[in-house]
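ESCALATION

Customer reports they have been waiting on this structure for their group meeting. Please prioritize. Original submission:
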Amino acid sequence: MTLPETMRVFERGWLSSNNILFIGSRETALVDSGYATHAEQTVALVAHALQGRKLDRLVNTHLHSDHCGGNAALQHTYACLTAIPAAEAEKVRAWDTDALTYKATGQQCPRFSFDDTIAPGDVLTLGDMTWQALGAPGHDPHSLILYCADERILISADALWQNGFGVVFPELEGEPGFGEVRATLELIASLDVKLVIPGHGAPFTDVGKALETAFSRVDYFMADPARNAQNAIKVLLKFLLLEKQSIALGELEPLMAGMYLFRESNRRYLKKDESELAHWAVAQLVRAGAAEVKADRLVNKD
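Update from on-call: job pushed to the front of the queue and completed.
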């Protein structure tokens, strides 16, 4: 389907989240800013689309590094007003990289500030359209999704993709998450949606099929929570590989052992020694065609 004239979607990939640009009659805004290493590209994409206009507002659906890593660069370039989920305000104000998960995942995120917060139920005007912020816990306890009832468009962040949803991170630390994922999917199913713009991947219209896939996947994880941990280990390693492009095999064991979420996933669910976990993770990515081993290095494959 064709997007409204005031919307642009920059489909980025898996290292950087998609960016949604709104060019309204009075104000411009961007939802999510991608990863830090792509920040220069993000700024260039926004500048090209704005054709000389200023970026007035920046909105984050949640504060995982692949969704807000470009915040600092955009703030430096445009001095744009920035809104973040209300529940994350104190963490950002104190720049608590443990609570924000950047240290736990070994991911980069340059420090940024914020001017406003958004809570579930808040109403925003983006691209001359009315959007409602809805709570979408599960992948991240404080994530928001944005819904435009008039256009029947949902910005789903990592709560719903065409083939699933993001890692259920709370469960890795022993906190509830699967039930929250299911409740978020039920919320989405209750909305009248004709187009979903996910955090990663192309926008899609077959919402029913995507929901069916997502419900099946959460049932699969609930039946054996170790499956979510296995998925998380693979996703976190793939993310690092996307950023670095290659990692020496000898560095993998200490790299993984030094990251809290790797350790917690292993301690709670997989119970492998560090060397075994590193070898297992490499084998999983290679088997999936997501990486290959060359000259004692793990090398990314797109």
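Sent to customer with the following note: Residues 231-300 form one domain.
Escalation resolved.
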